[in-house]
Design a protein that fits this description.
Largest sheet: 4 strands, antiparallel
Structural class: mainly beta
Helix content: 10-25%
Radius of gyration: 30 Å
Shape: rod-shaped
């Protein structure tokens, strides 16, 4: 539910401005590159929808929900055996290679105040 509260903010780029806090936005999303890239444009659209001019960050939290792991491995072997009389000789070898990675699954929860400038 929107609320209005008059305040004054000193912003380095704009000096001191009077503003109304007209509402808030709570945003929860995954913390990966794609969801975080979409965050600012989506928040800006929400601010415009509420009739605001800007956002002030109230809180921003990060929670690790789990992890994603993947791995790949391969191995090859080769060889040949030669028998001469009662003697058998083996010549060969093997190679193995593997890679793996683990990355966290993160959830970001943020709260913003929607503000409207007075002047």
């Amino acid at each position: 539910m929107p609320f209005m509260r008059r305040a004054t903010a000193s912003l380095p780029s704009f000096g001191t401005r009077e503003l109304f806090r007209i509402g808030y936005i709570e945003d929860t999303r995954l913390g990966g590159p794609i969801p975080m890239t979409m965050r600012n444009p989506q928040l800006a659209a929400m601010v415009r929808k509420q009739g605001g001019d800007a956002l002030l960050l109230s809180s921003d939290n990060e929670q690790i929900m789990g992890s994603f792991s993947t791995a790949n491995a391969s191995a090859t072997g080769w060889g040949s055996a030669t028998t001469f009389g009662n003697t058998t000789t083996f010549n060969g070898g093997a190679n193995a290679f593997g890679t793996g990675m683990t990355m966290p699954i993160i959830r970001r929860s943020s709260r913003y105040y929607v503000i409207k400038y007075v002047n």
